[in-house]
């Protein structure tokens, strides 16, 4: 199984930007579709973005569309999430995840606080 580790979170003011990274182990990175999901305090997991492995198609939740950009570098086994125009409601723990049921295959997460 692929193992995922996120980084790049932190404290940022509203309107600011952050770029999250997710490094994956294993040789199958380039063949798997990947997602960014998040969990805000007291709330359930929220899917926010997906990138396909075959053609690089990207998809976004309405809450982040136009502000966040997902990308991947298969040579570096790394997934990215560029987050611009951050809002208070973007505060959450952010995870990268495979398409596993319930996004069980995900990293430990990185905290993003917008305040």
Please report which band the strand proportion falls in: under 5%, 5-15%, 15-25%, 25-35%, 35-45% or over 45%: over 45%
Give the helix tally: 0
Largest sheet: 6 strands, mixed
Poorly predicted ranges: none
| Helicity range | under 10%
How are the strands ordered across the major sheet?
2-10-9-4-5-6
Work out the number of β strands: 10
Radius of gyration: 13 Å
Q: How do the SSEs run, as a string of H and E?
A: EEEEEEEEEE
The shape is globular
Distance between the termini: 36 Å
Average pLDDT: 95
Structural class by secondary-structure content:
mainly beta
Characterize the structure shown.
The strands form 2 sheets. Strands 2-10-9-4-5-6 form a 6-stranded mixed beta sheet, with no helix packed on it. Strands 1-3-8-7 form a 4-stranded antiparallel beta sheet, with no helix packed on it. About 25% of the residues are buried. The protein is built from no helices and 10 strands. The radius of gyration is 13 Å and the shape is globular. The chain has strands at about 5, 10, 20-25, 35-40, 45-50, 60, 70-75, 80-85, 90-95, 110-115. The N and C termini lie far apart (about 35 Å). About 0% of the residues lie in helices and about 45% in strands. A hairpin with a 6-residue loop joins strand 4 (about 35-40) and strand 5. It is mainly β and about 120 residues long. The mean pLDDT is about 95.
């Amino acid at each position: 199984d692929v193992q995922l580790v996120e980084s790049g979170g932190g404290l940022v003011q509203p309107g600011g930007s952050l770029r999250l990274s997710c490094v994956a182990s294993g040789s199958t990175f380039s063949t798997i579709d990947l997602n960014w999901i998040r969990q805000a305090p007291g709330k359930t997991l929220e899917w926010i973005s997906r990138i396909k492995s075959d053609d690089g198609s990207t998809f976004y939740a309405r809450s982040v569309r136009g502000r966040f950009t997902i990308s991947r570098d298969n040579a570096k086994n790394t997934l990215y999430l560029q987050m611009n125009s951050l809002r208070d409601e973007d505060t959450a723990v952010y995870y990268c995840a495979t398409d596993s049921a319930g996004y069980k295959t995900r990293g430990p997460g990185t905290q993003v606080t917008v305040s």
